[in-house]
User: Fold these one by one.
Assistant:
Number 1:
Amino acid sequence: MRRLILGLTLLLLVGGVAAAQMRIPGTGSKSVAAKPADNPATKQAATKKPPPPKGPPARELFGSVTEPAPLAARAIGSYAKGCLAGGVSLPINGPDWQVMRLSRNRNWGTPRLLDYLERLASDARALDGWPGLLVGDMSQPRGGPMLTGHTSHQVGLDADIWLTPMPDHIMTPQEREDMSAVSMLKDPFTVDPEVFTLRQVKLVKRAASYPQVARIFVHPAIKKALCQMAGQVGKDRAWLGKVRPWWNHHYHFHVRLKCPPGMEGCENQKAVSGDDGCGQELANWYAMLKKAAIESAKPPTPGAKPWTGKAPLTMAQLPKECGTVLTAGGFEPPVQGADGTALPESALKAMESADAGPALPTLTAAQLSALTGEGGGMPLPDRNPKR
């Protein structure tokens, strides 16, 4: 009887996905989300559209699965709204890498991602002298939204790589839980030249050099340092175009691969422009960094509501095939009770694991005064390393 109830619940969830999608003539077999026409009549009708089916957030369902879907390997959907069929696990120990935070069970990906990581680890050691990769989060066994830490990493084509060199011994599982990555920053705008050196520059350049790489995400201060130091690792600057500034990537870099050729249902991002990104784009990021640093240094407003972010994705918002991926091999979703979904122990361990690295540095009182003009101080661009 319990299996019957669970099966009916999942059918309702997956059925909601089909109802939330439509086929557009001329798009072949691709399904796209239905959108109301942009006129007052349809806008009014759109407000009366029934809400998506209720049920556990997709992150609780995918975060509860401990094994891959027994299906052909396939990245389904987009990096931040999809799932992974036939996921393959990266061995926790390799000749040139070690996987961190094993309790999260996030060392899964497509065969393309595993091939890339193994080659990068080998090339970085043999050609650049990097001791070995410390690999952070990749994807869950069946991809999908995660319980903590990421919006992307959902289709087996993303991986976090620590900017901390690998130790000279095979770490125990507990060491991998306790060890923290090292921040590359001295302050919110500047890398620490004692920590971020040419070794890290060579590693990021090597990671960006392969044609299957779509993007690499780093903190804006790291991007600035890469722009300034690129000439010390060769004349080529084309690789810098793939390295994109993004929030919080101050102790690791995030590699994103392109969809494998011919993989139906996998959605690539728009290709990068080819510009090295060291001009106006980086200046714009520093303006945002300055604003964010000043805001974070202010005392909290009394009575202000805490920021909660976007509502978690539901199964109805994921590609229809993700329902099949979730239940393949007989997986039964956790039962949702009155007090929420009863997550299995494996999911609770993943949620309780320590952050991979330290928090972002904050402004001192003197730095805040300089930025706001109260203490004179140097303009923001001059606060960054010239090397």
Number 2:
Amino acid sequence: MTHTIHTSSQRAPRKMSRREFLRAAAAAGLGIAGSRLSGSVVPHAKAKSVIQIWMWGGPSHLDTFDPKPDAGYDYRGPYDKAIPTSALGVEMCAGLPLLAERAHLFSILRGMTHGNNGHETASYMVQTGRMPGDGIDYPGAGAVVSYFKGYAGGYKGLIPPYIVMTQLQGRFSESGFLGNASRPFATGGNPGAPRFEVEGVVAKNISGERQIQRKTLLRNLDSFGSLISGVPAYAKSLQSEEEAWELITGDSGKIFDLNTTDRQTREAYGMNKFGQSCLAARRLVEYGVPWITINYEGWDTHKNHFEEMRRKLPELDKGLSSLIDDLSRTGLLDSTIIWWGGEFGRTPRVDWDPPWSGGRSHYGPAFSSMLAGGGFKGGIALGATDARGEEVRDRPVYPWDMISSIYRQMGIDLNAVIPHPRGFDVRITPESALKLPSGGLLDELV
């Protein structure tokens, strides 16, 4: 049995197998009622940019935003105290005292869940808001926002509209079927180094003055260009070249020069890779970049978990707190979403036996995320886990619930579609026909 699909772009119809048709129908929502996620509409976008702090490897919810001091040593480890925060009735892990003082500016999602314990699959689910397995390679939320809010949406900057610091995740294709047009630009380099050597923008061991000298030399050697100056293709090529040089030697590229920021501000973020990535993200928001991801490695703590937490938590606390402070002080927090979280949490019960020596493994049934700014309310702990943090007890939030809520704050229609290269349109949010478990949009936070 075959079915013919006609698309909105008037491409010639092609024959599809029954299996292909069902997959396409599920993806595009052909004739299917709207998703339960699309019930609420924000008439005007609240947010212009997203800073995604991706906790690569999965952070423990018990040791960050969902402490369980009374659960016993085998669950809490040395973190036997929860500290009060600036949000009434909300407590956090004692390892994050600076963030606790700013809890009124962000909200915690303690009911995050999807049940998957594999890095690749869980990352795909949390980043795309989709279940795998239907034959479609969905783009991540950053690529979707870049598609709608990037160059096609009126973005004028020379810096790409989707930036990742400093490396791509490598566990799934961030741009999915959207391909290179929505692929993020990975900076490479280290923002915490004396010179942030951004791939293709800041050349290693070459000063800005020398770059300008190279540009001048190239122009002097281009004798053929004057002979074809009226050729449209050459004019377009020359324009692209000038834009590239502007990014390398002009004001746009200076966004990445963190040495132009005063030392006191830089030290407030922490003179390390993560802290300086947060500072760079703030500057990119000021420039108008729609989506910035910070891939924050080091959270896959199977071994010596608490030793790692003693090092990582202060780093996280300082960098993220300073980012929130600066965006709040300048008014940019109103139009900038900060999304903190990883692919899952970590096992509430600690594995003390060798070779783990006090480690936590992967845990998808219950974990935490954090949202701030962009129209999301602060001071709320949404949802709850049980006394040991093992199960979601109240108000579950699934990845598609959260990502759809972010799209809504960005003013993106949840029924919007994007073109698949095979000739059909794909909705950006799951359809009700898929019958995914859902806690619904985050209406409590808007």
